[in-house]
Specification:
Helix content: under 10%
Order of helices and strands: EEEEEEEEEEE
Oligomer: single chain
Radius of gyration: 13 Å
Largest sheet: 7 strands, mixed
Number of helices: 0
Length: 122
């Protein structure tokens, strides 16, 4: 599976961005999908995850109520809608696919996108 993340950019605090993760090579419907982020000098952290059918979603506490993960299996794409962005959301965002089970651990993911930069100015 090849994953291509896009949609990052520079936005002011309080603004919104929508990230997309398009897959090729295999259908995403067999994978649990996650979004991670990594800020300079920090470890990569789990942001959000979504089950195979989209019925179950998971979020890290700092983004609950602001971010929404969704997927369109027909388009082989996963999205991350980010609202009310804060400067602390600044990071490179990565999408990833897990072929095993729902998990917030990066080591359990099999495929990774290249990352898209999100910068939130104060």
């Amino acid at each position: 599976v090849q994953l291509q993340a896009s949609g990052g950019g520079l936005v002011q605090a309080g603004g919104s961005l929508r990230l997309s993760c398009a897959a090729s090579g295999r259908t995403l419907s067999s994978y649990f999908m996650g979004w991670f982020r990594q800020a300079p000098g920090k470890e990569r952290e789990f942001v959000a995850g979504i089950g195979w059918s989209g019925g179950r979603t998971y979020y890290t506490d700092p983004v609950k109520g602001r971010f929404t993960i969704s997927r369109d299996n027909a388009k082989n794409t996963v999205y991350l809608q980010m609202n009310s962005l804060k400067p602390e959301d600044t990071a490179t965002y990565y999408c990833a696919a897990s072929g095993s089970f729902p998990t917030p651990l990066s080591r359990d993911y099999d495929y990774w996108g290249q990352g898209t930069q999100v910068t939130v100015s104060s």
